[in-house]
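Note to self: keep these together.
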Amino acid sequence: MPPVKSRKSAKHRSVWIVSFVLIALCVLASLREAVAAEPGMALVPGGKYVPLFRGEKDAKEITVAPFLLDERQVTNGEFLAFVRENPKWQRTQVKRLFADGQYLAHWRGDLDLGKADAAQPVTHVSWFAAKSFAAWRGRRLPTTIEWEFAAGAGFTDADGKKDAEFKKAVARWYGMPSPAVLPAAGSGRANVFGVRDLHGLVWEWTSDFNSAIVTGDARGDTGLERQLFCGAGSLGSKDTSNFPAYMRYGMRSSLKAGYTIHNLGFRCAKDL
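Structure:
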């Protein structure tokens, strides 16, 4: 006969295991319900993100909480619906403080897409306009860390550095010029999270400035530019051979909130 104490310990372990499994199942069910309630969004389960640049006192890893992310970029058609309901964001009505003179320049008019395809990613939109659209949808722009974490996932592995096919695709995308006519948003292959076109279609606005990639002096800057940047294809590592990440960094550092560019769009995120 085993000692009474051993039997009690075994029983406690069994109870703990059963409780853990039940909690895990409840959390999983809750996550599935959250995804089902937001069609067109994918669950990014979260994990550890390694910043591209960091100082000696910066954390080597950052924990990313689970969140929802649009499976594709916001389209011309969706943005048209937004400006219909929000006239102040129409091309002739928007204040120059919030968008430069190229805002929605590829459209024929305020409510006329012209030759712009409704299914293509909307571009020529400012950070202010993207942020307002997201709020209108009850969502937000993803943070840089969230965007980078999602963009680091491969086709078959959450760590894109372990996915040889994904790495080749990223290198090929960034070695080619942008197409004269953009494909439809979401036409690319989905990554392991179910998110498409984080690489190779258009650059994307994100919500906040990534303090992990600026100097200590810049962290003290409380000006507007501190909140602005875009994402455009990082594998999320400190690898000097990761040229897409450095391309993104260069693009990001050149932007201001009111800029509108022909290959800069956005997608939305949402908290769980």
